[in-house]
Amino acid sequence: MIQVFIVDDHKMVIEGLQLLLQNEEDITVIGSALSGKDALEQIDIKQPDVVLLDINMPDMNGIETCKELIARHPDLKIVAISMHKESSLIKLMLSSGAKGYVLKNAGQDEVIEAIKMVNDGKMYLDDTVNEIVVNSVANGNESKQRSPFPTLSRREKEILQLILKEHTTHEIAEKLFISFGTVETHRRNMLIKTGARNTAGLVRIALEYELHT
């Protein structure tokens, strides 16, 4: 029996994955967590075989969580479950110790296959993710990158430029005619992409690698 632990900051996603897996005879969900920090504590105790791990979490993102989990439990199998499709972010997650990467719109069969394959010691990328990675290599995207981080979107760069000018979230929202929540979502995504722990770290990395240009 493959024991699975789910980490996602949305209860609806956790419940959906539990429902998806509940009828699998050789898979059982033994627990879940809404944050990376909570996951670390619970996984230390429950010792699952496979962890389904979201990337975009507020307190401790999936990349940080993945690295810490592998440091504590080298044999743990981790499958990233994410909406992010950037090839460099996918590779960053895999280089952090994940053995699989599945998009959140993947079908039931793909999630189940990912769990079983990584549990057997194999790597798993769903069809869409595999195509993204292959195309990035074929197009030579990696060689064009100036930094080890995923490319920021135009909107992310706009927000980052204003952060560097010490504008508050409210001021950024007003200047760009977007909501406070949208600014925070972009800020959180930039933290994930760079692996920064907070805004100060994001600023340091942005200046060092010229991510805002």
Describe it for me?
- It is a single chain.
- It contains eleven helices and six strands.
- A six-stranded parallel beta sheet has the order 2-1-3-4-5-6, sandwiched between helices.
- Helix 9 (169-176) crosses helix 10 (180-194).
- Strand 3 (50-53), helix 3 and strand 4 form a beta-alpha-beta unit.
- It has 213 residues and is α/β, with parallel strands linked by helices.
- The chain folds into two domains: 2-138, Response regulator (Rossmann fold, 3-Layer(aba) Sandwich); 154-209, Winged helix-like DNA-binding domain superfamily/Winged helix DNA-binding domain (Arc Repressor Mutant, subunit A, Orthogonal Bundle).
- It is elongated and about 55 Å long.
* Number of discrete helical segments: 11
The CATH class label of the largest domain is: Alpha Beta
Proportion of β residues? 5-15%
SSE ordering: EHEHEHEHEHEHHHHHH
Assigned CATH superfamily of the largest domain: Response regulator
Question: Which structural class should the secondary elements be placed in?
Answer: alpha/beta
The share of residues in helices is: 40-55%
Brief overview:
This protein is an alpha/beta fold and 213 residues long.
What features would you highlight for this structure?
213 residues, alpha/beta, Rossmann fold, Arc Repressor Mutant, subunit A, 2 domains, 6-stranded parallel beta sheet, 6 strands, 14% strand, elongated
